[in-house]
Amino acid sequence: MKPSRNGWNEPLAPVEGFMFDLDGTLVLSDRSLGGYRVLPGAIEVLRELQGRGIPFVVLTNGTAYPAAEQAPKLRMLGLPISDEILLTPSIVAADLMTRHGVKRALVLGIPGVGQPLAQAGIEIVFTGQERADQVDAVYIGWHPDCGMKDIETACKAIWNGADLYVASDVPFFATAGGKTMGYSHAITAAVRKITRAPMILTGKPSVHALKLVAKKLRVPMRRVGVIGDDPLVEMIMARRGGAMGFGVTTGITTAEGWASQPRGRRPHRIVRELGEILDITTAESPRK
Ligand SMILES: [Mg+2]
User: Fold this and answer.
1) Most buried residue, 204, 224, 231, 242, by most Cβ within 10 Å?
2) CA distance 43 to 35
3) From the CA of 245, how far away is ligand 1's center (Å)?
């Protein structure tokens, strides 16, 4: 298919709400500074959507900080992101586990990872605590100090019948310093190599995540515009859920990189400047 000015000449369904990725799409995090750099157009586009009454949420695959900690930092940079519209895989996990009847979960992650689970009424335990391997679920999130005891406890819990939930299975993501390794991918690889347990992915590209996005936006999944920088993350999710995908070039994927993707990972449009999504919304959304 030939690329148009905005990417591909693929028909777009009307978009009634947007989901933005965070790293590489709205901001670049800078680990050395412990902060973020806002990407061009991000503040203006979110403010414009807000002004037009078009709903949006931000879904990051990061689980290090609960929304109540991370959203204020983003607001300090000028991004109009309330705590309620910042979603993480842990919020998806809490929603799923509640529906699956999980009462007690072993968390492989820093304390913030398990907070949304605890808020949902799930008892959370960590490695080293009493009966840590007697749980309904194991949940793997941001855990830079994960050790062999953690992996061993997770494996024992799974052998005892626990289901395996994983926040993010992405090998790397974009930061100001370039490619950064996804810790939960490495931990999950170790646990699954030993147990061969199937995993329930809660973060992107899981359709569980897109379902929660659609629920928060109060629009059907096929009316969601998914904006992100990673073909394996946002675009697979958009394609799986029948949503509209918009690929930005400010993160890990260049315009040429998008062009070389197979169909299942390709956005409906390449977005060279974030403001282009406003034209698409104006032109093709029913809420003009
Ligand atoms: Mg990203």
Assistant:
1) 204
2) 16
3) 13
**Collapsing DSSP states into helix, strand and coil, what is residue 220?**
coil
Domain 3-61+205-284, CATH class in plain words: alpha beta
For ligand 1, the distance from its centroid to the CA atom of residue 164, given in whole angstroms, is 24
- Cα 173 to middle of ligand 1, angstroms: 6
Query: Is-same-fold flag (3-61+205-284; 90-201)?
Result: yes
According to DSSP, the residues that pair with 17 across neighbouring strands are 224
Which residues are paired to 226 by β-bridges?
Answer: 19, 245
Q: 218 C-alpha to center of ligand 1: Å?
A: 24
Tell me how far the alpha carbon of residue 134 lies from the centroid of ligand 1, in angstroms.
35
Domain boundaries, the chain: 3-61+205-284, 90-201
What are the tokens at 201? Answer: 């992915």
- Output the pTM of the full model: 0.90
Segment 144-201, tens digit of pLDDT: 999 999 999 999 999 999 999 999 998 887 677 778 888 999 999 999 999 999 999 9
CATH 3.30.470.20 fits 90-201, yes or no: no
Q: Residues for the chain: how many in total?
A: 288
